Amino acid sequence: MDVIQMQRTWVEYTKSLYREGFLDSQFAQLQLLQDESNPDFVVEVVSLFFEDSERLLNDLTKVIDQQQGVDFKKVDAHVHQLKGSSSSIGAQRVKNACVAFRSFCDEQNIEGSLRCLHQVKQEYYLVKNKLENLFSLEQKIVAAGGSVPVDELGFL
Amino acid sequence: MYQNGSTETTPFRVLVVDDDRILRKMHKMMLTRLGIEVEVAVNGKEAVDLHLAGASFHLVLMDLQMPVMDGSQATKELRGMGVTSPIVGVTAACAEKAAFLASGLTDCVSKPLTISKIANYLPAPSNHTNN
């Protein structure tokens, strides 16, 4: 694939992520913060999100798996954090899954919480995969001497 | 002296107080790109300790829910110490906004933070970059 084709693929792929609700305008805000003096800013921030999310999902799994009763305060605290960080980077579907999760925490509903944990994990791994594909394409564009055509995302 | 207290020799300084490292990084970048000097604190206690050590800021952006010391308590302590800088709460927790404001905030905005939400507390655009 030549640079121009890769750039077109990048634009279409990015637009599809917004269209399908994986990303929202907050990710666009993140992209706007990146410039020549901070060319890796988006990757840096998203990497922090990946680290924090995986830690939180591990912690959530441990707390919900407790045999002696679930500490819903702890569960809610972790979900609140995950909701915050997913909202910060514009990972909309993860954020929405966290919103639903918190409702079940309020009700101290174990079954509902387990279902939500599964849903949050699913959405997280989906968006992680999508973003890794996006960054991989960006690397290829830059390696081929091109630039990432953020300006062509008309809604930014 | 420019609007909001900065001068040619004292750059506009903002303290970002948030336990979320992603938000600290994003908010810092948002402000740094405008030529604003940014310091960060990971919780309310750090923010208070910075002021006790003599630091001062033209603006404090304060998250609410933080470990060790939350934004409400930190704001009360800063006001109790005589800090008069604008302290703007930044929170996703709409239900607690009124209580947060009552702790001594100048204003409270909802997450996600954008420059337009705090524009009134920042220097006018032509004064952002200090030589």
Number of contiguous helices of chain B = 5
The greatest inter-chain interface is formed by: A-B, 20 and 14 residues
Task: Give the low-pLDDT segments of chain B.
Answer: 127-131
Task: Give the N-to-C terminal Cα separation of chain A.
Answer: 26 Å
Query: Which structural category fits the helices and strands of chain B?
Result: alpha/beta
Poorly predicted regions of chain A are: none
- Biggest β-sheet strands, sense, barrel of chain A: none
pLDDT averaged over residues of chain A: 92
Give your account of this protein's structure:
Chain B: This is Response regulatory domain-containing protein. Chain B: It holds the Pfam family Response_reg. The complex is a heterodimer of chains A (156) and B (131). Chain A is mainly α and 156 residues long. Helix content of chain A is 75%, strand content 0%. The model of chain A has no long low-confidence stretch (mean pLDDT 92). Chain B is an alpha/beta fold. Helices cover 31% and strands 18% of the residues of chain B. Chain B is built from 5 helices and 5 strands, in the order E-H-E-H-E-H-E-H-E-H. A 5-stranded parallel beta sheet of chain B has the order 2-1-3-4-5. In chain B, helix 2 runs parallel beside helix 3.
Helix/strand layout:
The complex is a heterodimer of chains A (156) and B (131).
Chain A: H1 3-19, H2 25-33, H3 41-64, H4 72-89, H5 92-106, H6 110-143
Helix pairs in contact in A: 1-6, 3-4, 3-6, 4-5, 5-6
Chain B: E1 13-17, H1 21-32, E2 37-41, H2 44-52, E3 59-63, H3 71-80, E4 87-91, H4 97-102, E5 107-110, H5 115-118
Parallel strand pairs in B: 1-2, 1-3, 3-4, 4-5
